[in-house]
From TrEMBL:
Gene: nnrD
Protein name: Bifunctional NAD(P)H-hydrate repair enzyme
Occurrences of domain YjeF N-terminal (ranges): 14-212
Pfam families for this protein: Carb_kinase (PF01256), YjeF_N (PF03853)
Family, as annotated: Belongs to the NnrE/AIBP family.
GO biological process, one term: metabolite repair
Native source species: Endobacterium cereale
Length: 491
């Protein structure tokens, strides 16, 4: 059976599910009836003392759900007002049927004025919205948001693009979002996630086999997707079996980022961690590290010689390393090792991204790129500039181009594989946005690579565990605090 707690659907996939359900003999109006009844039940449970429920009904099937909800609330004895964008003659199919079955006389949407005690049922537009809202609808949304009224959104708050999570002009701020069968991209991608409030997923009777037949390969990042790939300690385990992680340091005045990554890598299970330092940084790093080793690696030749003799399992290059030719030279000799390229390492290829992509083209994916938005645009300027693409689509396109796992960082970090898989991370608390947290993430992913976890699973696990570490460190944490909590703990 499909795990609906992690599967994420695009609007197009859900449209295909609806069509397949109807083709299998399930009347679409039955699905609409169950959806509207679920909204009404949630509204009565959450706001039993509401002075009035106000159903805002749009011109499509989302509006049909709203008419059903209004009828159910009325039948339950609540005071209900219905405001519509289109008269019943303009409605089509099951939405029109739902409107005609509603005993309440609707008023034009333009007549609504927010009143104290109102609870809004937002059934204007669902997850399929892709165009900018009209000016009059935006004005209404502003009035409701300004009034601070409770809003129950049907499927997705009106004004949010279900595919990209973007605000299409303006969006209703929901207190609760009621969606059906499974979550959609707009529920997880920013800024859409912030407009949803609490999200409830209701089963309205679509067979799981129908959902499984049309779901893609986008998931909500969760341990159930990768926990089986994590290393398990055994009695015969020794440090080299747990992997040797190398983190490359910058010059003497830029060593902190590498030490953060190295500390996190050690906490996250790497058996041995070495900070490879230029000559002027060796003493600085050695004086600040204990369990982590330090080795002088100044030139490309020194790195090449070391690689020939050392048991190195994975590398992290970029945090505090410095931008330029030396970074590119080091990367050119690390192509046979699993590599996390972050920060300065990414920026070093902004003028020659193809040089990086060609170096890791073909074969097993060993490269993990961890860009924030600005760094992403430096490596993939055309993809970043395409406003028609959402974050998941951009990350997938970048992964395919570079033959790398992309961790497109942010509050809604997207982890994408060249094979098209994409996970959306949603457990990162706001206080994770602090200087140095990206260095910790790079070290955590590097440690998992060093322990033999495949690149995509290492990146997904690292992103999730990074969020869990921040939750344990609690508000007010520093990156140093975060690194100390970077252990693998799924309890």
């Amino acid at each position: 059976m499909i795990d609906l707690s992690t599967h994420i659907f695009t609007p197009q996939e859900m449209n295909a599910v609806d069509a397949a359900s109807v083709a299998s003999g399930i009347p679409f109006f039955d699905l609409m009836e169950r959806a509207g009844q679920a909204v009404a039940a949630s509204a009565l449970r959450l706001y039993p003392q509401a002075r009035r429920f106000v159903a805002l009904c749009g011109p499509g099937n989302n509006g049909g759900d709203g008419y059903v909800a209004a009828r159910a609330l009325c039948e339950a004895g609540a005071v209900v007002a219905v405001l519509e964008m289109a008269g019943d003659t303009a409605l089509k199919g099951d939405a029109r049927r739902a409107a005609l079955a509603c005993p309440l006389q609707p008023s034009p949407l333009s007549e609504y004025r927010p009143e104290a005690g109102d609870v809004i049922i937002d059934a204007l537009f669902g997850a399929g919205l892709s165009r900018i809202l009209s000016g009059d609808v935006q004005q209404l949304i502003a009035a409701i948001n300004d009034a601070g009224l409770p809003v129950i959104a049907v499927d997705l708050p009106s004004g949010i693009c279900g595919l990209r999570g973007k605000v299409l002009g303006s969006a209703l701020q929901a207190t609760r979002t009621i969606t059906f069968m499974a979550m959609k991209l707009g529920h997880l991608l920013m800024p859409g996630r912030t407009f949803c409030g609490e999200i409830e997923v209701f089963d309205i009777g679509i067979p799981h086999r129908t959902l499984a037949a049309h779901v893609g390969n986008i998931r909500k990042n969760h341990p159930s997707l990768w926990a089986s790939r994590l290393p398990a300690l055994a009695g015969e385990t020794h440090k080299y079996k747990r992997g040797h992680l190398v983190v490359f340091s910058g010059s003497a005045s830029h060593t902190g980022a590498a030490r953060l990554a190295a500390t996190a890598g050690s906490k996250c299970g790497a058996g041995l961690v070495t900070v490879a330092s230029p000559q002027d940084a060796v003493a600085v790093n050695a004086g600040a590290l204990t369990a982590v080793m330090v080795r002088q690696v100044e030139t490309q030749a020194e790195l090449t010689n070391w690689l020939d003799t050392a048991k190195i399992s994975a590398c992290v290059l970029g945090p505090g390393f410095g931008v330029g030719e030396r970074a590119r030279d080091f990367v050119s000799v690390l192509t046979e090792k699993p590599l996390v390229l972050d920060a300065d390492g990414i920026t070093s290829f902004r003028d020659e991204p193809k040089l990086l992509f060609d170096a890791f083209a073909g074969g097993e994916t060993k490269l993990v790129l961890t860009p924030h938005e600005g760094e992403f645009a430096r490596l993939f300027p055309d993809i970043a500039a395409d406003e028609n693409l959402g974050k998941v689509e951009k990350a997938r396109a970048a992964a395919a181009r570079s033959n790398a796992v992309i961790v497109y960082k942010g509050a809604d970090s997207v982890i994408a594989s060249p094979d098209g898989r994409a996970y959306i991370n949603s457990n990162a608390p706001p206080w994770l946005a602090t200087a140095g947290s990206g260095d910790v993430l790079a070290g955590m992913i590097g440690a998992l690579l060093a322990q033999g976890v495949p690149a995509f699973e290492a990146a997904a696990a690292g992103a999730y565990l990074h969020g869990e570490a921040a939750l344990k460190a609690e508000p007010g944490m520093t990156a140093e605090d975060l690194a100390q909590h970077a252990n693998i703990d799924l309890t």
